[in-house]
Amino acid sequence: MSPTLSRRRFLKISAATIVAGAAAGRVSSAIAASTAPTGLRRVPTFCDLCFWKCNAIATVRDGRLWKIEGNSNDPLSRGRLCPRGTGGIGASSDPDRLRSPLIRTRERGAEEWKEVTWDEALDYVATRMKKIAVEHGPESMALFAHGIGGTFVKHTLKAYGTPNIAAPSFAQCRGPRDVGFNLTFGEEVGSPERTDIANTDCLVLIGSHLGENMHNTQVQEFAEAVGRGATVIVVDPRFSVAASKAKHYLPIRPGTDLALLLAWMHVIVTEKLYDAGYVAKYGYGFEPFAASLATFTPEWAHPETGIDPETIRATAREMARHRPATLVHPGRHVNWNGDDAQRSRAIALLNALLGSWGRKGGFYAPASMDVPPYAYPPYPKPARPKLDNPDKKYPFATESITTGIRDATLTGQPYPIKGWMVYATNLINALPKQADTIRAIQQLDLLVVVDVIPSEIAGWADVVLPESTYLERHDELNVELFKEPFVALRQPVIDSPHDQKPNWWIAKILAEKLGLGAFYPWHDIEEYLETRLKGANLSLAELKRAGVVRGPRQPIYFDEGVPAEFPTPSGKIEFYSPQLAAAGFDPVPRYTAPEAGPPGAFRLLYGRAPMHSFSRTQSNRLLSDLMDENAVWLNAVAARRLGLKTGDYVQLRNQDGAVSHRVRVKATERIHPDCVYLVHGFGHTARGLRHTFGRGANDAQLITRYKTDPLMGGTAMNVNFVTLEPAEAT
User: What angle do CA 49, 119, 143 make, to 5 degrees?
Assistant: First the structure.
């Protein structure tokens, strides 16, 4: 057994120091791409740098990964990748990435480890999971997972018998949007979003940073819409890239979006600018909805939002002029103020007034390929229900709530959680209030982390399992709901450079060690994929060659024959929601002013950059060359008042005393005086991430407070305030 090592030595672990155990020998040759020693080899696959999952062609030159390009047959990327996609090479060659399985040797957080074989690591995990099942029940094991790569890990945990499986993408990202639209139309917006930007004549973006948040299809269609002269209306406290393309830019006071939405709807209803035929045919409860808007005039909204009443009227009329090809974008990361499901419902209602749902230039009805699932044995029925939302405290939650699982871990109620498995999500930075996450971890009997890089959450793990990057593995098929139906394959382009393994293999071997081998009747991933594809009259060989297979175009609009069906209780678009009324909530959204911060403090806002994905990519050398640290955006007038200028170093201190790493100031007129802004994902504290350790400020460290959405349990994180203090430049 190798000696104890600190986390600083993660990247010093070489494959030569590990002799693979018996489990390692069970990897099928299917996980390794044949490597030609000379010449060029092109391998289709799809990207893993965000949920868009664009199809790509990777080129191997003389046995080494050379470049990644878009697949021209891909309806998502249309042959073009974003900076993250083309920079994916750096994920495989990242010298900071995990190389071998590790088991903790000291207390959690001490970051000291021993290298072990895969057999030792998975035996350790299986033994402790069996113990948890005997002493507490399998429901006391929870899984946090992100992305399509978590498919097989979820399968193993369901076979084990736990219902407690959650993704931060719901309660910390898109959940309020999905709930707001579901309450209105009976359907969610989906991922990728069903937005028909390609045909819109008026695009309204409320805090949606297209061009900075690189959702490929939308960004391409946005650029084309600007090029053909579509009207763009941008509402944002910050003059974003999208705002620079706008006909109307509304620099709104942070936290007051719902006031603006209500005023817009007031104008459209009182001036009878809405699509009356659409509303009469498909709407329910329009009269009480319209009556509830009577007091929400532009003059009422002005002191709340800071937006001039005539600007509110002019932009409302502009939207109505282009209906139904007006798209009020639903956003993606929408956990902001605590009323986020109702704010998203207001966005849905505004689209309904404009008649955009199911119409060209608005929201299309997505299509998909019919690829049957694998015929697994039925999962065991858990003895206890999932515990993230006891007594349906958040009655409209449609998925598991991550912070609900964390709360149960802390309190032991309604029953204890004793083990976490974390796949491809850095919970330390993903969940608000890091101290609660760490306290919950200290209550566990087992914490297992599966990741590519030594992230912050890996630093607290009992066992760290190094995963192959997406360029080195197969994954589940991507059978996406999109404007055009397709099925796509992720396959290995190169071998994993050290002792990393693909997620499907980790999940399969762990299941076998848990005595759950019956849930993996297939020998290797290629057998699994071939079985699914045969059910759709497709072949794995065909997908290996092409990467993506497209199906015939299907109708996607009401006027093309898509049934105008709304799976709400009324069967119609619910302008007035009996569901909300029955649960004690406002049936039509109402505005509550945001709470003010301490005197002299700025509301902390955060967002994305086009070359980075969350906190996953800062150690990727190709992407960090484009942006290696963030800066704090500060209004130029406020900067002068504080005696600061662009390039000065400061620390951010929040209302609870949390202090960031030093970060440069960006003094600019492009941000509202009430707030500051950081790109998320910097200021890493994981010492295994040597390249990015301590660079910039970590917004997650400063999010010590949050408000919980009463409808669905989402965590609003734009409720923290900071002051700026000078910091040393070295």
Answer: 45
Q: Are strands 463-466 and 102-104 parallel, antiparallel or unpaired?
A: antiparallel
CB atoms near residue 518 (< 10 Å)? 11
By C-alpha distance, which of 441, 424, 421 is closest to 98? 424
Q: Which helix (H) or strand (E) holds 631?
A: strand 631-635
For residue 224, pLDDT over 60 is answered with: yes
Among 587, 167, 265, 592, residue whose Cα is nearest residue 396: 587
H or E segment to which residue 435 belongs: helix 434-442
The answer to whether the CB of 500 falls within 8 A of the CB of 98 is yes
Q: In what order do the strands lie in the sheet with 463-466?
A: 5-6, 112-115, 102-104, 463-466, 446-451, 419-423, 141-145, 165-166
CA angle 654, 657, 661 (to 5 degrees): 70
> CA 179, CA 493: separation in Å to the nearest integer?
39
Pairing of strands 649-654, 721-726: antiparallel
Q: Where are the domains of the chain?
A: 195-365, 602-726
What three-state secondary structure class fits 715?
strand
Q: Which two tokens stand for residue 22?
A: 């018996």
**Separation of alpha carbons 39 and 584, rounded Å:** 67
Return the CA Rg of the chain: 25
How many other β-carbons are positioned within 10 Å of the β-carbon of residue 556? Answer: 20
- State the DSSP string of 83-95: HHHHTTHHHHH-T
By percentage, how much of the chain surpasses pLDDT 90?
93
Architecture of the domain whose range is 195-365: 3-Layer(aba) Sandwich (3.40)
Question: In this structure, are residues 168 and 528 in contact, taking their beta carbons and an 8 Å threshold?
Answer: no
CA distance 345 to 348: 5
Find out whether 511 and 153 touch, Cβ atoms under 8 Å. Answer: no
Pair type for strands 573-574 and 283-284: parallel
Domains 195-365 and 602-726 share a fold: no
DSSP 199: G
- State pTM to two decimals: 0.94
Rounded to the nearest 10°, the torsion over CA 211, 213, 219, 223 is -10
The token pair at 610 is 């086009």
Q: Output the CA angle 585-587-590, nearest 5 degrees.
A: 80
Cα dihedral 150, 402, 183, 559, rounded to 10, equals: -20
pLDDT, one tens digit per residue, over 670-725 is 999 999 999 999 999 999 999 999 999 999 999 999 999 999 999 999 999 999 99
Q: Note whether 332 and 201 are within 8 A (CB).
A: no
Count the Cβ atoms, other than its own, within 10 Å of residue 673: 16
- DSSP strand E in 266-393: where? 283-284, 326-328
Is there a contact between 400 and 388 (Cβ–Cβ < 8 Å)?
yes
As given in the structure block, the two tokens for residue 299 are 């003059």
Q: What number of CA atoms fall less than 13 Å from residue 668's CA on the CB side? A: 18
DSSP 467: B
pLDDT digit string, tens, across residues 363-418: 999 999 999 999 999 999 999 999 999 999 999 999 999 999 999 999 999 999 99
Assess contact for 335 and 705: CB atoms under 8 A.
Answer: no
Can you tell me the distance from the alpha carbon of 366 to that of 385, in angstroms, rounded to the nearest whole number?
32
**Which whole-number Å values give the CA distances from 253 to 219, 341, 636, in the listed order?**
26, 19, 16
- Distance of alpha carbon 165 from the chain centroid: 16
Q: Comparing C-alpha atoms, which of 356, 187, 337, 422 is closest to residue 709?
A: 337
Q: Which of 1.10.150.130, 2.40.40.20, 2.40.50.100, 3.90.79.10 is the CATH number of 602-726?
A: 2.40.40.20
